[in-house]
């Protein structure tokens, strides 16, 4: 069973959810977090809806069994679009917050009423996106670009890449959207938030780059408030504990927020590097 001090669980097929975790930490500094990357199931964006649903439900079930969180954030557009109902049905009584492309804020920004969405193939093809577009941007043209190569770049090659390599990686998708005259680009895959700055640099000053990290963090905070589940660790912190992350860790000096991976084996240099960059300590393999 969970309570106020239970962790909040973040889930993605890989490292895409990490910028979302970071935004939630900023808004909810008293909370503890756990993060699961479905390393064994990655990538989701080129798989069938049924396969994505089975992978996401299974991985989240294992994470919930292991960490008894008070809330789950699906920090993956593809898993949310294709599997949020199945995930909710499998986790009764738990707060589940999804992540979908930020079409509503994009529609508020677009002057030319043309919005680019760059995401996985599965996410751009999903009916869910069509539903979002007709709900929030009915008078806008939506330019949908699926970029599996960019997902792979972020997951496997981002760390250690040069700025030039990163700019080259985002360029084809950005150009395809600019050719269609968009003035707003929605980062509809969580992996792409690691390249927000590069998207902005290639698109130029006339184009807004929009993502959903602050919206997801705000939604998480309001769901915790609705359920009376905001963490109380902050009270301890103001009571003389200067750094919760170090003070609450199993091992002194290690961050208390934990990283899990599906599949076998240690995190290796890539996940190890991301764990270090985002202040997570390696906690083991699931299920
Ligand atoms: N990060 C994911 C998303 O937001 C999916 C990446 C993948 O596994 O293809 O859609």
Tell me about this structure.
The protein has 287 residues and is α/β, with parallel strands linked by helices. The protein has two domains: 8-99 and 214-286, Rossmann fold; 103-211, Rossmann fold, CATH 3.40.50. It has 13 helices and ten strands. The chain has helices at 18-27, 49-67, 77-90, 103-109, 121-125, 127-136, 148-157, 163-179, 196-203, 213-226, 233-238, 244-247, 268-277, and strands at residues 8-12, 33-37, 71-74, 95-97, 114-119, 141-146, 184-187, 208-210, 258-262, 281-286. A six-stranded parallel sheet has the order 4-3-1-2-9-10, sandwiched between helices. The chain has a four-stranded parallel sheet with strand order 6-5-7-8, with helices on both faces. Helix 3 (77-90) links the parallel strand 3 and strand 4 (95-97). The structure holds D-glutamic acid. D-glutamic acid binds at residues 12-14, 16, 42-45, 76-78, 120, 123, 151, 189-191.
The structure class reads alpha/beta
Largest sheet features: 6 strands, parallel
The tally of helices reads: 13
Unreliable runs = 235-249
CATH class of the largest domain: Alpha Beta
Mean pLDDT: 93
Q: Give the helix proportion (percent range).
A: 40-55%
Whole-number total of structural domains: 2
Biggest sheet: strands side by side, in what order?
Answer: 4-3-1-2-9-10
| Number of beta-strand segments | 10
What would the CATH topology of the largest domain be?
Answer: Rossmann fold
Rg computed from alpha carbons, rounded to a whole number of angstroms:
19 Å
**H/E element sequence:** EHEHEHEHEHHEHHEHEHHHEHE
CATH architecture of the largest domain: 3-Layer(aba) Sandwich
Morphology: globular
The N- and C-terminal alpha carbons lie at a distance of 19 Å
Small molecules (ligands, ions, cofactors) in the structure? D-glutamic acid
Query: Strand share of the residues?
Result: 15-25%
């Amino acid at each position: 069973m969970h309570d106020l001090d239970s962790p909040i669980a973040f889930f993605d097929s890989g490292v895409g959810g990490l910028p979302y975790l970071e935004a939630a930490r900023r808004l909810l500094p008293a909370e503890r977090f756990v993060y699961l990357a479905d390393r064994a199931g990655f990538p989701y964006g080129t798989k069938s809806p049924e396969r994505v649903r089975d992978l996401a439900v299974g991985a989240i079930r294992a994470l919930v069994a292991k960490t008894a969180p008070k809330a789950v954030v699906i920090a993956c557009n593809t898993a949310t679009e294709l599997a949020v109902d199945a995930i909710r049905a499998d986790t009764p009584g738990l707060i589940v917050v999804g992540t979908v492309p930020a079409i509503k804020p994009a529609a508020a920004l677009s002057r030319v009423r043309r919005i680019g969405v760059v995401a996985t193939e599965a996410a751009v093809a999903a009916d869910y996106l069509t539903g979002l577009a007709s709900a929030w941007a009915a008078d806008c043209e939506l330019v949908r670009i699926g970029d599996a190569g960019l997902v792979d770049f972020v997951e496997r090659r981002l760390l250690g890449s040069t700025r030039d390599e990163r700019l080259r990686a985002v360029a084809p998708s950005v150009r395809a959207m600019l050719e269609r005259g968009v003035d707003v680009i929605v980062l509809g895959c969580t992996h792409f938030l690691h390249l927000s700055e590069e998207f902005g640099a290639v698109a130029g000053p006339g184009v807004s780059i929009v993502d959903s990290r602050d919206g997801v963090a705000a939604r998480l905070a309001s769901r915790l408030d609705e359920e009376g589940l905001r963490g109380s660790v902050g009270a301890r912190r103001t009571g003389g504990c200067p750094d919760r992350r170090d003070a609450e860790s199993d091992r002194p000096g290690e961050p208390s927020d934990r990283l899990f991976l599906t599949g076998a084996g240690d995190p290796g240099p890539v996940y190890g590097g991301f764990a270090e960059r985002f202040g997570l300590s390696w906690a083991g393999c699931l299920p």
